[in-house]
Protein 1
Amino acid sequence: QAGLTQAPSVSTGLRQTATLTCTGNSNNIGNEGAVWLQQHQGHPPKLLSDRNNNRPSGISERFSASRSGNTASLTITGLQPEDEADYYCSAWDGSLRTQVFGGGTKLTVL
Amino acid sequence: QLQVQESGPGLVKPSETLSLTCTVSGGSISGSGYYWGWIRQSPEKGLEWIGSIYSSGSTYYNPSLQSRVTISADMSKNQFSLNLHSVTAADTAVYYCVRVWEYWGQGIVVTVSS
């Protein structure tokens, strides 16, 4: 089944800003928005942003999500070593009637 | 603080049924207005939504798995469960239960092998 498209890897310097993108279509991101998840190796995913681009309690303001058309973005400012992780986007697809995921972006902090 | 925790066998034989339970603590699954779901993750397929159950009891399944999946809830025990029938090696994965999408269990590794 069709999923969302994410770059496999992104590398950015310490204390710099990284922007991760997630591309879908009008049946998923364009209509429903996307959630963003962070996953460190060996741990379950953690919600960074809900589909309305709101951060759950306890999530740093350094993480901000946005959407333009069929593309969702996650911007991480002031990169820290602990930000090195896999980042996934996900959205409900009203046409496929299923939740779709991106393949994930591995963020490396140089 | 709400917590969810998966339990069940870590090894299932091919063609048999994979059965997992998610125990919820620190909150109620009934009347909560939330979706409770099962997600699995494997190197081959990445993250995959299996299905969800709403606090009213309505269920929603991934169309690609719908013929083999049943998700149910036991409100008296504050648990919800996953049954995946006729498993194959392709169903080997880490299985997570989640209160969509904020609270995740630690995950349980399920291997399908004889």
Note: Chain A has a mean pLDDT of 96.
Protein 2
Amino acid sequence: KAGVTQTPRYLIKTRGQQVTLSCSPISGHRSVSWYQQTPGQGLQFLFEYFSETQRNKGNFPGRFSGRQFSNSRSEMNVSTLELGDSALYLCASSQNPGQGHGYTFGSGTRLTVV
Amino acid sequence: AQSVTQLGSHVSVSEGALVLLRCNYSSSVPPYLFWYVQYPNQGLQLLLKYTTGATLVKGINGFEAEFKKSETSFHLTKPSAHMSDAAEYFCAVSTNFGNEKLTFGTGTRLTIIP
């Protein structure tokens, strides 16, 4: 069974640009969550999608957005990039987190903003 | 709201010694509890989880954790440390009450001394 696939693995962008990250969940998993990991703030929840609907959202500015497609694949977008957006962005998928199913994480996309 | 406290941002143990990583949680509703491991430049790998039932949970790589409701703890242990256990470990909590996002602790970096 293929794991959670995130593309690209590494990305370098300039301040003010926008970026789109992609996540393909495990087949059959309908929930996709996104997390930001930085040395200073640790792992912070961005948002969660279930069957194309955003169910939960973390405390991030509106520059951070996401969506989920009918095949459960998800994308997140960050507009007007700031230096502080440099981080490892992790995607996780789950069959149904509300029933205690575990979350499987991808290897992440490391975004560097210069 | 949930929260997680991991005591000790760095723990060093000798190869073959007991590994004990501490995790205390706060949750107003019954929690789901998880331990994840992260190796350098990789995503998070699920070690074990507690949802309901038996309070002693066994995971991969010889790790186990015990859910103690009275102490609001979910400490991770391994009887005998191996060099390959060197990594960062994260404790996380979620619930099944409409807010299934993972809330992570700040992590504990485990170093194994040869």
Note: The longest strand of chain B covers residues 87-94.
Protein 3
Amino acid sequence: DARVTQTPRHKVTEMGQEVTMRCQPILGHNTVFWYRQTMMQGLELLAYFRNRAPLDDSGMPKDRFSAEMPDATLATLKIQPSEPRDSAVYFCASASGTGYSGANVLTFGAGSRLTVL
Amino acid sequence: GNSVTQMEGPVTLSEEAFLTINCTYTATGYPSLFWYVQYPGEGLQLLLKATKADDKGSNKGFEATYRKETTSFHLEKGSVQVSDSAVYFCALIRSGAGSYQLTFGKGTKLSVIP
């Protein structure tokens, strides 16, 4: 089965350190999402890209978070500097096509669990 | 804005019990509605969906009917199994071309005991 691959699966770091999470979307999928999951807030959309261009990053704290797609096979989410409140599970998802009709092929990765001490 | 409200969990059921997880939504226009399931340590997987009023989505014994009059999309299963233990998320996408922005509920954790 085609899958979205996220690395690292687990990351423990200290406050102030830079954290980079990576995502390999399904080959041929042109839309990539970053979500954050916490107990308090549930699932929050941080940013998403179509054809590598950022379409919406309004859910992302701009001062410390950045998301990029250096190429079609790699999406990155960077936090610098990290803070304890960033502790969460970060999910990447990818989809093909355009518009909501493609939601049935929104495929999630297994997530990157981040703990900031 | 769009929002999804799910019943709070956790929900604990015995095997073969009947399951209902309530979901109501607020949205402009005519959204598409979804249920996603998240098994421990995994990402979310699409369980079922409905794209217009009165549609019934179904998969793996689960069903949900899009009720526009009550703005609801309750998830049901007639006989749960231990393997159904997971977190279930109700979600919507607002109508309109070019939109992929899923709005999720907070999730309902289901535990099924033998």
Note: Chain A has a mean pLDDT of 90.
Protein 4
Amino acid sequence: DSGVTQTPKHLITATGQRVTLRCSPRSGDLSVYWYQQSLDQGLQFLIQYYNGEERAKGNILERFSAQQFPDLHSELNLSSLELGDSALYFCASSVGQGRVSPLHFGNGTRLTVT
Amino acid sequence: DAKTTQPTSMDCAEGRAANLPCNHSTISGNEYVYWYRQIHSQGPQYIIHGLKNNETNEMASLIITEDRKSSTLILPHATLRDTAVYYCIVRVGQGAQKLVFGQGTRLTINP
């Protein structure tokens, strides 16, 4: 158990809908990262937050947004969903700035868009 | 971040040591070598990381060459549960930097 909690585990929704994925980082970790893994793309970095502030952005679509709240949990919002958004979405956390700290991943949310 | 090169797939017999190589010839002095694995569709699991010295923990050993251009992850007594995709990643040490995953090595442990 990595200590990173993601909910829900599975999500099935229709095209055009909006969903919210939630991540609770490990206790004491200030950084949260979101990754997408689809069958043909491998693990792709989406976005990173540190202590509530956005720190890095990857290939995140404009239809996607995220935030990190004062209690350090994070949410990834996916809107106007398309079939191609079907994927595993992973959240990871790390201690953060100024230290060499591994990322620890949750077990993901499997999103299916029909 | 420096690019890494790993074999696409490897096989190993159960109970034997699994040695997974990784080339990172463009690694910089402040970049660490990290290893992760992903079993089926679970979240990537952290294994070990190092800068220039060899490292060992309860899961594995990491051997980094003196010039730091390559490394080897060693699973000393592989079990069937070690079947997974193994990722070698080079990452800047300081600060909360993201990990950039490549294609990794699909390791199959055979009974």
Note: Chain A has a mean pLDDT of 94.
